[in-house]
Amino acid sequence: MPEVRVDPLTGLRAIIAADRATRPGGGLSAEPAPQPDPATDPFLEGHEDRTPPEVFAIRAAPGGADTPGWTVRVVPNLYPALDPSSPEPPRDATPDLFTALAATGAHEVIVNAPTPTGTLAELAPAQVRSAVDVWRLRMRHHAEAGANCVHVLVNEGREAGASLPHTHAQLYALDFVPAAIARERERFGAHATRTMGGNLLADLVQEEVRRRERIVAIDDEAVCLAPYASRMPFQLLIAPRRPVPRFEDDGPSGAALLHDVLNRLARRLGASPPLNLWVRTAPRGADHFCWRIDVLPRLAHLAGLELGAGLGLNIVAPEHAAAELRGA
């Protein structure tokens, strides 16, 4: 029978309605995405002149900026959503109704690999670790520069919003904390108060490991599970085995487990699905927090319920998704 579940980290609700998977058109699979065309790929090694000048890169051997030989490369977004020189907009005559602020901050592209590869799952594990290490370095750079919130994300596939097929991450360094992240910060703080210092995500992971029914995989660094109130089919969460507030701090990054579970998804679905993933790290003002990586395959369309009511409708119970991925 359908049931409504509440996400302990976000407070958001989702309807788990597994019987809807049996309706016509309810089967879930993925088709291989087109590979980047080397002729037009601006992120391909050797095409450094097709991007803005790099701000950071890892090279196997010493070399000049904006030259081949890199393994991970960071450039400003050519079409930035944030700009450090963004001017303050004119004040509206009715500011209690119409408020606008300068879109200051930074918007970077982190090219995960020099080869024309479409997904993180297709990369070698060592290359994924190198890419994730650079995510961490750039997050640390912007946090130390004063950003109130740093958000790193990966969009794979046009259905998930990717405009270029070459695997890359985007970094947003924000001078404010978005409402959804501020709400999570509050829930971590409330849990710590209620439990005399407990960490919300660490306590959640501990209980999930004890129950085992939603665990997908565990390695030396991290745990992957299908969240209790998953909003979409095969949604996944990766968290460190021991709580660490900020992803940019030294310690485990979960890169090996991320590569593992992305390949499990590809094996289960027939190909790497279009997906969004992001790194949640402690925003400014968080006294209690733990980083995590959220993976959201885009196997179902967001429709009127999700967009109009903010309510997830998931046709694959997370317990079933975890069992299938454990066997993949």
Automatic annotation (TrEMBL):
Active site feature: 168
Domain Galactose-1-phosphate uridyl transferase N-terminal: 3-178
Keywords tagged on the record: Carbohydrate metabolism, Nucleotidyltransferase, Transferase
A GO biological process held by the record: galactose metabolic process
InterPro entries registered for this protein in UniProt: ADP-glucose_phosphorylase, GalP_UDPtransf1, GalP_Utransf_N, HIT-like_sf
One GO MF term attached to the UniProt entry: zinc ion binding
Disordered, as annotated region: 18-49
Gene3D superfamilies (alphabetical): HIT-like
Pfam families: GalP_UDP_transf
EC numbers, comma separated: 2.7.7.12
Protein name per the record: Galactose-1-phosphate uridylyltransferase
Name of encoding gene: galT
